[in-house]
């Protein structure tokens, strides 16, 4: 049987350790390597020029590597569902291979393509290589549920075999047996487009520190592993001022786009550590960033709403403020806090910031200062970050906003002190907030405290040349910690009630603020009734509630036609408990639907 194979590149933009590509070449008579400019990258999100540039550079590098092997990359613009029927017919395709995508959108897309391929009589082969572990296998070990703590995740993967050893790089000999004749108009039809061709006007040169592609990724890996002293004497890394600047050994964007195999990185690091330390097993912290990546991929794999609050079963439903003006100041680096503004400026210019800098700006936007939803932070990072994996980006924001995975809400990053501890001289601020480059070290983190004479001598007057702080950090943090405290106190109380009543097998969505108890729950009739009573029990203990109005409960419903309404419950019920049976008796049960109103700060109010 004649085999005409197509390998579909998506994230695994490399020739080394590419199991699906190896499957395409095995025994094939012809083989084509295809990249479809499809919505996994652009999607509904706004993707910035730096990410597009990195992608196009990676595709150009992949094409150059294939040229050296007497092959080429076929770049086709369009959606896969529209592209593949044409390619199947035009090239008489009999085999389609691609790397497994564990994210919900990818699963849906790939399922549709597999079904389509079957209709055309095309064999499909899918192989894992974007993650160290199969997320579906980890879920299976955890009873079908995602592990919601990193400790639990580590316990699960420690029971698995070590990640598979990486496969060798594709060779010219492999491709020689399945060489495909290229059309004369190949460059015209299938070349990598430019930024201008994609609609970017005056895109500029971009940050030279991040050049896309497998070639650059492997060079960086070599430099990273050359730091043998660091590997041999490994301990949890301590961030220093120079760590804030992008370096020639950074790898995260290359792992995100699959220019570098995570298995190659893992095993090279492991083998070098064992060689230098001669220990039976390296510490898990050596692979910390890789394992956090795996953790979030696993948590997201069966959750299509992982990047939003609504419909997200693991997300605490906190009533964040809606403040577009404050959001814009944060995103554009105009907060008046030099440490925060420097981070956001570096992110916008270069597409990368240190992970502790990400922690600082995420805390500032959400639970630390501005009390704005982590969903907004996800969107900004999705646009600007080179390494914005969908799973890792959303998971990190939920974690840092204390919406899931992490509940130490009393720990907040100070937008002055945290940066000063890392970089006492303020070199980082002077690089990315040049208005403050001539400020004395004493005032560079808090220029508003500098005497007016110092401000004028430094050429930057606060409120004129640089914005005043947009918020009182100490006051905002105190208030927000109290808000979070109320959320988690009521969440803990409600969980205890629901467990005793056997109402919900999984944690309900839950949130609270100073006036009402907000809960999002499944809407079956029995659960709804039990929910009313559980809500009453909570509200009854709230001294701020009117004695005659036991509770004010707002439900967040998945039914769109109910979204514009509040449900106001007046309940007076007594509970009689018999063995595993709950009887609710007496009292008044009144439900009214009231129009939705909003307070000036964007929070809901009856």
From TrEMBL:
FAD binds at residues 289-296, 387-389. Residues 3-132 form the Photolyase/cryptochrome alpha/beta domain. It holds the Pfam family DNA_photolyase. One of its GO terms (molecular function) is DNA binding. This is Photolyase/cryptochrome alpha/beta domain-containing protein. The keyword NADP does not apply. It comes from Electrophorus electricus. GO terms for cellular component: cytoplasm; nucleus. Belongs to the DNA photolyase class-1 family. Binds 1 FAD per subunit. Keywords: Chromophore, FAD, Flavoprotein. Its cofactor is FAD. The record marks 320, 374, 397 as: Electron transfer via tryptophanyl radical. The lineage of its organism: Eukaryota, Metazoa, Chordata, Craniata, Vertebrata. It comes from the Eukaryota. SUPFAM superfamilies: Cryptochrome/photolyase FAD-binding domain, Cryptochrome/photolyase, N-terminal domain. GO terms for biological process: circadian regulation of gene expression; entrainment of circadian clock by photoperiod; negative regulation of DNA-templated transcription. InterPro entries: Crypto/Photolyase_FAD-like_sf, Crypto/Photolyase_N_sf, Cryptochr/Photolyase_FAD-bd, Cryptochrome/DNA_photolyase_1, DNA_photolyase_N, Rossmann-like_a/b/a_fold.
